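F.,

This is the one I mentioned.
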């Protein structure tokens, strides 16, 4: 200790942690249920790197527990540098201690303690060999006090120690002169920690699936394996196997037909187009085999979004069709961002300047810079969608009432201080004048048509500046009909929903498989007779009127966005959701009336005589 440090100790009463058990339990709640797999694997990877030798990591059934207690306990085995008994006491039994160098962007020294100990109250046992000598510690939670610590063991001479020296009988065959085994005992002696936690995907391969999808790549000098099919006899080599884990990069290289990178602001977008092959479905049990999106940092994947959530995120990046075959990883530039990029303490989220990642900015920039290969792929997939020519007829029907979709920004109120100019009911509205009773404000500049400083819409006309022109955005969304049959709708997307709206592309995707549409087509086909060409005409007319209902809903809801505090982005998102769009087509009377009238003009009178 230096003289300066001694003076600091004399002048400062250091802060202490009064209730470590509560702090650990609270931090543990922030962890993903399987976070301990990452933390212990990462510790093993770093231990192997410190050894300076190639190494192995194995997740398996701990054999001693099976022999002694006939219960399966999960363990991780590595051939890393190992620890002495004293080192284990120091690094495992202190909350923020680590054998590696600690920093805000690298090693916090708390991960495994938080993620593993809080989910194994019965204990976490460490057995480690260094320089040929084995030692063991047992980290446990006291059920009476709620505190965590090392069990003290009585030695043969009657004294107590926080660690015991152990025989090589407990050493795994992959551990020679050095290495470590960590055994997870669960919350009771008879609990099998090989069994996957509740609601975990791929319960028979849960360790493989989590680690493969958490790591982009493993170091070249390390082999990582995980036990699958542990409930089958060890002689059953087809099902009871140690699977070699590859991480997502190895899988994507094997199963993609095209790949590349796109430079974004302070980040690189890595992308892959997957092959259209059975592996998309068949390999989902142990790896993320279909389209998804994630953040990539230091060879680990964060915020991975797959299935429906991943599809929505890929759509924001411009992958409006074929999203099941596209993978995008965004890798922030560590050298440019330096200490600005980090993770939360539990390593469940990647943070940029302690804020969420700028996914919206990245999505917008990626759409603008989308590689030609991806553009061509999306266009190819989109070509199979049911393109319609309903747009012109819908516009023609609505052109005389389009102003009714423009909502005033200000709500009528008896006590309001503003009068609304009915000629200015554009989206957002503008006040025509202030009432005499309103407080004095900064006078308007002459020539302005309204508005005020600090308006949510800042792009008003200016009195001076470079020449320009008004741009009126087209309120009508582009529409396309998608279906499982032609491959434009993936299984699960828009399932039993009428439509989905992709705001970033102003694209309305309508589900041609939705049972309400099909029922209506069948209804009118029977009514007008199933003669030659009748079904095609019925199909077109029914789709046109449902499409109009959906287009009107999108235009109308868009007009509400941001017009008052009651229509924040969250409420707007709900109002434009798949469920809300489905609700908009559940009315029947007006659609039936309109469809019947148009079909009568095209096909002649109905074949069914209706009462009344």
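My design for it:
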């Amino acid at each position: 200790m230096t003289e300066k440090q001694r003076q600091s100790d004399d002048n400062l009463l250091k802060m202490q942690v009064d209730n470590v058990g509560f702090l650990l339990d609270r931090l543990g709640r922030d962890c993903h249920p399987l976070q301990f797999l990452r933390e212990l694997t990462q510790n093993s990877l770093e231990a192997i790197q410190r050894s300076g030798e190639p190494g192995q990591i194995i997740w398996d059934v701990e054999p001693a527990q099976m022999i002694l207690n006939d219960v399966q306990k999960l363990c991780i085995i590595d051939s890393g540098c190992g620890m002495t008994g004293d080192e284990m006491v120091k690094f495992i039994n202190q909350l923020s201690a680590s054998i590696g160098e600690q920093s805000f962007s690298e090693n916090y020294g708390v991960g495994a303690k938080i993620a593993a100990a809080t989910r194994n109250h019965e204990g976490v046992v460490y057995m480690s060999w260094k320089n040929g000598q084995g030692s063991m510690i047992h980290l446990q939670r006291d059920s009476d006090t709620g505190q965590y610590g090392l069990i003290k063991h009585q030695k043969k001479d009657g004294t107590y120690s926080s660690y015991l020296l152990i025989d090589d009988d407990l050493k795994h065959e992959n551990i020679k002169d050095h290495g470590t085994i960590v055994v997870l005992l669960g919350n009771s002696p008879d609990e099998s920690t090989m069994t996957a936690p509740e609601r975990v995907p791929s319960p028979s391969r849960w360790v493989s699936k989590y680690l493969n999808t958490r790591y982009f790549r493993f170091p070249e000098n390390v082999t990582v394996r995980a036990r699958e099919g542990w409930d089958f006899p060890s002689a059953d080599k087809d099902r009871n196997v140690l699977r070699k884990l590859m991480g997502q990069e190895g899988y994507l290289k094997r199963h993609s037909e095209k790949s590349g990178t796109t430079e974004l602001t302070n980040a690189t977008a890595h992308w892959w187009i997957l092959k259209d092959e059975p592996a998309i479905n068949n390999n989902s049990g142990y790896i993320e085999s279909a389209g998804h999106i994630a953040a990539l940092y230091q060879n680990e994947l964060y915020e991975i979004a797959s299935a429906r959530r991943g599809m929505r995120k890929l759509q924001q990046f411009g992958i409006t069709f074929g999203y099941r075959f596209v993978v995008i990883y965004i890798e922030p530039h560590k050298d440019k961002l330096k200490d600005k990029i980090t993770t939360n303490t539990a390593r469940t989220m990647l943070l940029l300047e302690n804020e969420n990642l700028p996914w919206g900015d990245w999505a917008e920039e990626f759409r603008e810079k989308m590689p030609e290969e991806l553009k061509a792929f999306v266009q190819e997939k989109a070509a199979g969608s049911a393109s319609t020519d309903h747009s012109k007829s819908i516009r023609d029907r609505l052109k005389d009432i389009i102003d009714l979709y423009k909502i005033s920004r200000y709500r009528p109120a008896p006590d309001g201080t503003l009068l609304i100019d009915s000629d200015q009911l554009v989206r957002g509205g503008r006040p025509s004048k202030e009432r005499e009773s309103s407080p004095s404000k900064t006078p308007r500049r002459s020539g302005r048509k309204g508005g005020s400083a600090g308006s949510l819409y800042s792009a008003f006309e200016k009195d001076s500046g470079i020449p320009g022109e008004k741009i009126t955005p087209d309120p009508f969304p582009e529409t396309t009909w998608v279906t499982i049959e032609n491959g434009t709708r993936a299984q699960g997307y828009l399932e039993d929903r009428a439509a989905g709206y992709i705001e970033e592309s102003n694209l309305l995707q309508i589900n041609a498989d939705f049972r309400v549409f099909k029922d209506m087509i069948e209804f009118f086909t029977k009514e007008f007779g199933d003669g030659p060409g009748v079904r095609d005409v019925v199909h077109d007319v029914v789709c046109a009127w449902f499409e109009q209902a959906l287009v009107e809903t999108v235009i109308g809801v868009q007009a509400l966005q941001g017009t008052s505090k009651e229509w924040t982005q969250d409420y707007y998102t709900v109002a434009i959701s798949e469920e809300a769009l489905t609700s908009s087509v559940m009315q029947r009377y007006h659609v039936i009336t309109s469809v019947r009238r148009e079909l009568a003009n095209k096909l002649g009178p109905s074949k069914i005589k209706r009462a009344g």
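The first strand starts at residue 55 and ends at 61.

Talk soon.
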